[in-house]
Amino acid sequence: KAGAFILGTGRALPSRVLTNRDLEKMVDTSDEWITQRTGIKERRIVAEGESNSKLAISASRKALEKAGVAPEELDLIIVATLTPDYPMPSVAILVQEALGAHRAGAFDLSATCSGFLYALSIADKFVREDPARKILVIGSEVLSNKTNWEDRTTCVLFGDGAGAAVVTGSPDGRRGVLSTHLHADGCLWHLLTLKGCGSLYPPCDPRIPREDYFIRMQGREVFKNAVRAMESVAFEALRANGLSPSDIALLIPHQANIRIIEYLRERLELPEERVFVNIHKYGNTSAASIPIALDEALEEGRLKEGDLVLMVSFGGGFTWAAVVLRW
Ligand code: ACO
Q1: Does 37 contact ligand 1 (Cβ within 6 A)?
Q2: How far is the CA of 210 from the centre of ligand 1 (A)?
Q3: What's residue 197's pLDDT?
Q4: Which residues form the active site (predicted)?
């Protein structure tokens, strides 16, 4: 039986575009290297006055409008993010206040690039309990402020943005989320970190290496784990629903690297037109990548009623997840 049904989606990207050519002037890299190794051509970066919560609010307004849902109808707001404006209040609280969603509970969730699928799976449980509930699920990141712009191995990868979805209970028990699959393995957490300014790594502490205030990643090791985990959770999700890959109308993978996406596409033996890719425009926007992709896929008419969608993510922690839904 289906659970969370998506009533409307929205996205917000910062206005400033940072191209590979721009990066060539900042670090020892080339458009050719970045394009070949990652598939990224440009990414969006917040400008003065833009912030995580502002992107989240803008994406949410669009999602609510498409859903035909008023902010006062919302029961819950969940924001998946690893780059909140502040430790307190949460981004979800800032969204709640800006929208005037007075009835809604609100909290942030930290599960790196899998955050949106983790958040969607929580929303799924809430609407399975009471299908009348309306929940705003957001993935929003400003990774540019946590990027070491002198480290060419990471600074070419990330971008900023937000995506949002308004969900409620399935209208017919058929359409909506069919299953959710969440995983984590802390054994290799040290391969991908952002330690400052956590409470153990206070701001401007001279004893802490400067690099620890930014995202640090052992890319090759993360890559190997990402392909393995995403393949495994994709097949787990298909098996759980008695599906084969050919049943999937659209795969929406986390956009971290075009080579990871290609690997997954080949393992699932899907034709290119059944895999959504927008990494060339936005880079890796962590928790925002899947809801941004979903919103664009809908705008491009890539989904019709009854289509099966498989969403798959992988991120720091490690965390990885999959959600199967019938559109
Ligand atoms: N420009 C030019 N050369 C570079 C650059 C760059 N921007 N970055 C690295 N290189 C060099 C390296 O120094 C290395 O040189 P060497 O061979 O002389 O030592 C060479 O290119 C190859 O480096 P690798 O790290 O082996 O390159 P790889 O093919 O693995 O690509 C990448 C690196 C793109 C980071 C890849 O490993 C990757 O995508 N990893 C996974 C990222 C991911 O999935 N993250 C998920 C979650 S992110 C999150 O949770 C926030």
Answers
A1: yes
A2: 20
A3: 87
A4: 113, 254, 284
